[in-house]
């Protein structure tokens, strides 16, 4: 199966280091770099490239590395408070052998312990001068992501200017609504990790002293429209969901439990929610085939830039940014 392109979105905010104040508008950061806005963005971008010094920075476990240089694509649009960055990233720390996929008998090369098989990754950073909420977008692949490392490096980079950077995962409402419209509920789980000693012993004496015991009851093999499912289930307790008495598992209104529902859309993409907020989903954001380069199956830089610009415009409306 070919790699597909995905997108992770994070809401970002800054405050002066060691400050107990609320988050501040991003002009505080850039005006500390240069009084001229365009020059401040240019300096920010060049400082970020210089941070790598032409070398890959790795995570703490030395399993992934990323880098960007002047050879990578990049766009500074200070008038829009946007920076687009292309980075290289991949796995490190283990010897890999290279074969032609049609011939597993003949090795044609090696990727050594200090070498990296890299892929291009796309980053979009929106830092509005007159707002305290910004956006970081990190593109990834089906089996390859560098988002955690990107966040670590950006946090350290912003710290060098005297600010603390905070992240929170973010899914635009339009993407949630589109997913819900095209998905169904296919599984539900009732979960408890508060099982009394007596109930643990009742299940099996072997578990009597296991204080961290967790019980999950799974119901699957069905397919229901999301709205219809919750219309029939909403307000019911765990016993009502499956019509069985689960008191022996300490699943009751008094003992407490969690209920999770699992969604799948028409393309097989998965998401899950808790019963307390049945529409608060965070489905994986898949990028369209149209932004791929046919030769490499990587992103086309200009196409992904335009596509994420459109997503950013939706986000601005959602957060009330004019």
From TrEMBL:
It comes from the Bacteria. This is Uncharacterized protein.
